[in-house]
Specification:
Order of helices and strands: EHEEHEHHH
Shape: elongated
Strand content: 5-15%
Radius of gyration: 23 Å
Largest sheet: 4 strands, antiparallel
Distance between the termini: 66 Å
Helix content: 55-70%
Strand order of the largest sheet: 2-3-1-4
Number of strands: 4
Number of helices: 5
Length: 186
Amino acid sequence: MEQFSWLVLSYKVPSEPSSKRVAIWRKIRGLGAVYLQNGVCVLPNTDAYQRQLKIIQNDILGVGGEAALLNTTAFDEQDGETIITHFNAARNAEYEEFLEKCQSYVAEIHDEIAVQHFTYAELQENDEDLKKLRHWLDKITTVDFYGAPLRAQAEREFGVCEQVLETFTQHVFDAEVRPDGVNPQE
C-alpha cells in the first residue's frame, strides 16, 4: 500500500457562542476534512492544508478553545484504508446529493419540453442552474482526494444535464420568431 501522510486536527471549542463553533466546523468541512470522531478531523498532508489548518487552529485558540495539529501516517495498511474509506464515504454522500439534483434538473427540463415552455427567460434560468451544478461538482471533485466510487457517475450525469439543456436550447431557438419575421412554429 502506498504510504499516505495526513494532518490531524484535534480540538475543543467552547459551546457558547455556538456561532463561532459552527463557523469553525464549516471551515474545516469546506476543506474536505473528515471527522474520525467528535473534534478530531483529518486531511491529506499538503502545504496548502497545513496553512489552512494552522489558520483554523489560531481561530480555535482565539475563541478560547484548545487545538493540536499533528502530522501522521497510518500504523498499518488497514488503518490507512479505514481513513481513505472515511474520505470516500463523505464524498459519496456529497455525490449522491448532487446526483439527486441532476435528476431533478433533467426532470424539470423534460417537463418544460412537454408543455412547450420555450422562452428565453426559462433558458436563462436553466443555464444558471446548470452553472450552479457545475460549480457544485467542481467543489466536490476538488476535495475528492482518493477517487470516490460515485465520481464517474456524477460526471456522467452532469453530461446528461448539459445534453438536456442543449436540446432545450434548440427548442427555444426553434420556437422564437426569426429576425426575418418568420415563426418556424407556423
